[in-house]
């Protein structure tokens, strides 16, 4: 089993993706942006490999205007060496990648222009995966689209247009249930007619259930029948509802106890689980560390090195509890570690705790900082303590110091992103 995340990283340096406005597009600009984005993608792949993350969704924005006439560049040729290098890392590691076109890629629209653009966009996504040298186990996930006042006709249009797609697209295409129009039961019917594997999304199903009230585990078993040996391991999407937002909104993080209940109920070892969550790789690492066969405490210690000052500023009690949990090197208290961590991160920020954590972080600079820098730090502390500035200003200054003095330990920590 693999657990992964979608598109972007949290707290990983040099992994941003760039684009530009259409009016600023030029050949030189596109080459600059594509080169930057491929460099970022390779950094993401390297990060994933270093952290046991073997499932990843590549951003549709990798190649700016990739499916638009605004980008006529033969980018596969121009960047062939870079693409092959990234693809080789994916292949040799056994990582599985995918892509997921956005809401405007609608194959079942009654508007021929919309359908034509959707086909062009799907072709672009297949070009990306082909240019990386990935096989057909690396999929393109797509929602069915709208209903347009006649669901049966809309389904038939989707199937008809799928059959017209280039074989390079068809062999990768995987339909998914959504939270509004097409239930998993309906998508299974579509997948069966197309002989295409189907992705089950648990949150979409919770909001838009099928008439047949089966459990998630049973629906996943039904979807499993659509996955052939050449398609790779069955893939599902997993997310949790953000309790403070409208139905269908993804949570900020994956609550580990809720995830483990789901994982146990669906025999997770037989699945590839794509997490859809705001904190991306952070939740992926959490779930991986709680389900991995290799239960070495070194993985929790690595996580602790990233989280420790964030926990300290939120809850000194949780800080001490996690230190206690990690003291016995022969044990692997992953679930207790993350449960304590989640509780700490949900704690309200108190000024005294935040200042204490900031002073610990400052400890990395106190022997190298100039007199002026020390004075500035103290001013930041005083301004924050008196309520004249927020904690963000204090952290911004500490980040500048970490960059100046090249303190990798802090630059890789999560202290500056929470």
What does this structure look like?
By secondary structure, the chain is an alpha/beta fold. The chain folds into three domains: 2-291, TIM Barrel, CATH 3.20.20.150; 297-345, no CATH class; 351-411, no CATH class. Helix content is 50%, strand content 7%. It is built from 18 helices and eight strands. The protein has helices spanning 27-50, 75-78, 80-93, 112-131, 151-163, 167-170, 184-194, 202-207, 216-224, 256-265, 281-291, 297-314, 316-325, 334-345, 351-362, 371-385, 391-404, 408-411; strands spanning 2-6, 55-57, 96-98, 140-143, 173-176, 200-201, 235-238, 272-275. Helix 13 packs antiparallel against helix 14, helix 15 (351-362) packs antiparallel against helix 16 (371-385) and helix 16 (371-385) packs antiparallel against helix 17 (391-404).
């Amino acid at each position: 089993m693999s657990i992964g995340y979608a598109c972007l990283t949290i707290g990983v340096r040099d992994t941003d993706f760039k684009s530009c406005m259409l009016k600023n597009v030029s050949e030189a600009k596109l080459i600059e942006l594509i080169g930057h984005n491929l460099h970022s993608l390779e950094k993401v792949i390297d990060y994933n490999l270093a952290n046991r993350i073997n499932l990843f969704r590549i951003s549709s924005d990798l190649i700016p205007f990739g499916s638009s006439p605004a980008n006529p560049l033969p980018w596969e040729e121009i960047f062939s060496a870079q693409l092959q290098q990234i693809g080789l890392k994916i292949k040799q590691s056994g990582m599985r990648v995918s892509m997921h076109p956005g809401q405007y890629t609608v194959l079942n629209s009654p508007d021929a222009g919309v359908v034509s653009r959707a086909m062009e966009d799907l072709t672009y996504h297949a070009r990306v995966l082909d240019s990386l040298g990935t096989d057909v186990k690396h999929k393109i996930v797509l929602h069915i689209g709208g209903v347009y006042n006649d669901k049966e006709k809309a389904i038939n249009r989707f199937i008809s247009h799928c059959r017209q797609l280039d074989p390079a697209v068809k062999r990768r295409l995987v339909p998914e249930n959504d939270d509004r129009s097409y239930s998993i039961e309906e998508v299974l019917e579509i997948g069966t007619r197309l002989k295409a594997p189907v992705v089950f999304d648990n949150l979409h199903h919770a909001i838009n259930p099928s008439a047949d009230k089966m459990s998630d585990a049973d629906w996943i078993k039904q979807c499993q029948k659509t996955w052939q040996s050449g398609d790779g391991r069955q893939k599902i999407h997993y997310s949790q509802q953000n309790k403070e937002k409208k139905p269908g909104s993804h949570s900020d993080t994956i609550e580990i106890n809720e995830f483990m209940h789901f994982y146990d109920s669906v025999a997770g070892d037989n699945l590839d689980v794509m997490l859809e969550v705001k904190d991306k790789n952070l939740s992926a690492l959490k779930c991986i560390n709680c389900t991995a066969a290799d239960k070495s405490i070194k993985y929790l210690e690595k996580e602790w090195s990233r989280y420790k000052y964030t926990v300290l500023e939120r809850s000194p009690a949780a800080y001490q509890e996690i230190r206690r949990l990690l003291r016995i090197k022969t044990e692997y208290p992953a679930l207790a570690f993350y449960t304590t961590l989640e509780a700490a991160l949900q704690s309200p920020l108190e000024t005294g705790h935040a200042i204490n954590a900031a002073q610990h972080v400052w400890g990395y600079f106190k022997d190298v900082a100039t007199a002026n820098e020390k004075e500035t730090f103290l001013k930041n502390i005083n301004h924050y303590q008196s309520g004249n500035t927020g904690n963000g200003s204090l952290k911004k200054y500490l980040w500048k110091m970490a960059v100046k003095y090249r303190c990798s330990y802090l630059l890789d920590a999560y202290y500056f992103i929470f």
